[in-house]
Amino acid sequence: MKKIKWGILGTAKIACEKVIPAMQKSNYSEVYAIASRMADKAENAQKRLEIPFAYTSYEALLKNKDIQAVYIPLPNHMHVEWTIKALKAGKHVLCEKPMALSLTDVKQIMEISREKGLKVSEAFMVKTHPQWIMAKKIIQEGKIGRLRSIHGFFSYYHDDLENIRYKYKLGGGGMWDIGVYPVFTAHFIFDEEPEKVLALMKYEPKTRVDILASAILDFPSGQATFTVGTQLVPYQRMQFFGTEKMLEMQIPFNAPPDKAVELKLTAGDLFDKDHEIIEIPAINQYTLQADEFSKAILNNTEVAVSLENSLKNTAVLEALFKSAVSGSWEKPEY
Ligand SMILES: NC(=O)c1ccc[n+]([C@@H]2O[C@H](COP(=O)([O-])OP(=O)(O)OC[C@H]3O[C@@H](n4cnc5c(N)ncnc54)[C@H](OP(=O)(O)O)[C@@H]3O)[C@@H](O)[C@H]2O)c1
């Protein structure tokens, strides 16, 4: 089977612990090279993960002509710069979320990817996970009646102020780290764009990054509300309320690779009547993500998460940050 040769920029935790081992199980992807700013880190990762090539700079990796695609798990503020450098070096790019911290930057990436005829996708692995595909199907088939309200929660506890998530200039904060998921999935499920949004945020006093944020997104057919927090009990849930039933996703964002996940369809918890559990077999969402991106390159088809999706997402995030400061509703500028 033909496989795409991938290069990885940096030895990020998410890459070394989750994404690379998952990509190595993919049918269409080969992890061919890794680069680090530090020689010992590059060498250690290469040995530990059994990767054929290691480079001591990101630029050097991009010069390898055999590499067709690059995965970018760098700190958020570096995503745009390295996506553009990789495109200019002739590589397709799978970039970690958030792809960019501004709408202008997404537009620039769009222009360059079009010019170069190369694929770029934001690594929202949830989009290809069967539980999200099933949830969308159930809702589209009208099994909850008319969808009117989406409610989401995503939190974890992390107070190491040295972590990139606490560096304001690096694109830190809970909204950029995990708030992007309920925004992305609300778009995906409603299949519409919110007309206006409102956000409320609390900030870590020393670093000024948001540690607690709540938002309302006003869509033409309903509303999405969510809370994200980075100094809270670890928890995640997405609930989709229709005129007849409610669908609940119990592990919406970090579905384990080795355990089945469940969707619960209920006519109302109060009486617990007519309650159905839909089991989704275990699958590694990072393997699927790599397979889907590699297949899009091999077959020259659409990527799962398009740059248009990223554009809409980023517009909403920009408006949410604006609203947290203005205290008013803000309109995303698509
Ligand atoms: N999809 C998901 O499930 C998921 C989960 C977690 C994180 N993420 C995303 O993945 C990205 C990385 O997150 P992470 O927590 O894995 O990061 P991390 O462990 O802190 O790694 C970031 C890497 O970037 C490189 N780097 C370059 N300049 C840096 C700088 N100034 N400061 C720190 N590191 C720098 C480093 O690699 P070298 O030193 O080797 O060059 C470092 O290992 C973020 O964009 C995050 O949003 C996604």
Describe the fold and architecture:
The chain contains 9 helices and 14 strands. Strand 1 (4-9), helix 1 (13-23) and strand 2 form a beta-alpha-beta unit. The N and C termini lie far apart (40 Å). It has 2 domains: 4-124 and 287-301, Rossmann fold, CATH 3.40.50; 126-284 and 314-326, Dihydrodipicolinate Reductase, domain 2 (2-Layer Sandwich). It has helices spanning 13-23, 39-49, 58-62, 79-88, 103-116, 130-140, 174-190, 285-298, 307-326; strands at 4-9, 29-35, 53-55, 69-72, 92-95, 120-122, 147-157, 196-203, 210-219, 222-229, 231-242, 246-249, 261-266, 276-280. With 334 residues, it is of the alpha/beta class. The longest helix is centred in the C-terminal third of the chain and has 20 residues, at 307-326. It binds NADP nicotinamide-adenine-dinucleotide phosphate. NADP nicotinamide-adenine-dinucleotide phosphate is lined by residues 10-14, 36-38, 41, 73-76, 96-97, 123, 125, 164, 177.
Short description:
With 334 residues, the protein is an alpha/beta fold.
Contiguous uncertain segments of 5+ residues: none
Shape: globular
Which homologous superfamily in CATH is the superfamily of the largest domain? Dihydrodipicolinate Reductase, domain 2
Order of helices and strands: EHEHEHEHEHEHEHEEEEEEEHH
Residue share in helices?
25-40%
The helix count comes to 9
Report the CATH C-level class of the largest domain: Alpha Beta
Q: Could you give the order of strands across the largest sheet?
A: 8-9-10-7-11-12-13-14
CATH architecture of the largest domain: 2-Layer Sandwich
Overall mean pLDDT stands at: 97
What ligand species are in this complex?
NADP nicotinamide-adenine-dinucleotide phosphate
Secondary structure: number of strands:
14
Give the tally of structural domains: 2
Spatial separation of the terminal alpha carbons? 40 Å
What class would the helix/strand composition place it in? Answer: alpha/beta
Content of β-strand: 25-35%
Instruction: Assign the CATH topology of the largest domain.
Output: Dihydrodipicolinate Reductase, domain 2
**Multimerization state:** single chain
Tell me the Rg in angstroms: 20 Å
